[in-house]
Predict the 3D structure of the following.
Amino acid sequence: MKGKIESLRQAFEAELGQTATSEAVEKLRVAYLGKKGSVTELLKGLKGAGADQKKELGQHINQLKRQVEERLAQQVETIKAAEIQREIDAAEVYDVTLPTGGESGSYHPITIVQRQLEEIFASMGFIVEDFKEIVTDYECFEAVNIPKDHPARDMQDTYYLENGQLLKTHTSAAQNAILRKYGAPVRAIFPGRCFRNEATDASHENTFFQMEGIMVDKNISISNLIYFMKTMLSQVFERDVKVRLRPGFFPFVEPGFELDISCLICGGEGCSTCHHSGWVELCPCGMIHPNVLKAGGVDPEEYTGFAFGLGLTRLVMMKYGVKDIRDLNSGNLKALSQFRHE
Ligand code: PHE
């Protein structure tokens, strides 16, 4: 029996030396320690032995068992380290200048549309501003006329940091900083990623993009707002788009509107994207509330302005006929690469 234990030990070591993958090590584990494994069989074979023998041989077999376990674990580590090393070596020889064999990458559709919009607005005299994603309560809410206890906050629950800062729920969080930076008159757009604590479905995501715009000057009115919105939308969609304005409430505009466009996915007949209404809410907007101008250091007696919060993600869905908003954040290259020729 002792001889058998010893030759099993040697056989195991020899086989272990041959393993090069974690799967092979696992196979070996089953072959030795599994229910019908060689070491297990040895232990079973002790049943008929006398008490003394059982004790002595049992110790030897258990020692072998422990050894097998340890060696298997070591081998897994060695293989993993070798795999990592191989990846590192491979990465080092990766030559970024090599041709890709015809497979070029593509911009994300949101980036494509964002750039297009930036160009359109730039041609109308707007500057493009970048803004952070982590903002203060003041920037996101108080500066845009949403005090601490305002019920409008319920619609914009978000993710809070321990220091009290939060992931911005809307691009309006940049309005105050931009008014302060440029003063009046100003025309600016500021695209950005926004976050909300939302239950997700085909048309809601916890992470999405908006493009905000403000125009502040003397004698700015609702007609200016409508003109800019229409011009921009017909350029983006490269056709005449039907729009409608409904009254909408946002504490930072007065009066406030919801600008809807006729659903381009179903042509206005009704589908799941437009909740079977034929219309898609695309661009809340309105005349900037005097309190917001004041907070931004602009005199509301002298200046007026409009603001809009274009749902960039939604616009992309409409433009490309994307039915499920979740596809856009999925990282699914098959879905996203269809925009590569844009
Ligand atoms: N910030 C608003 C939202 O995300 C949209 C908005 C922007 C409304 C500008 C009016 C003016 O819901």
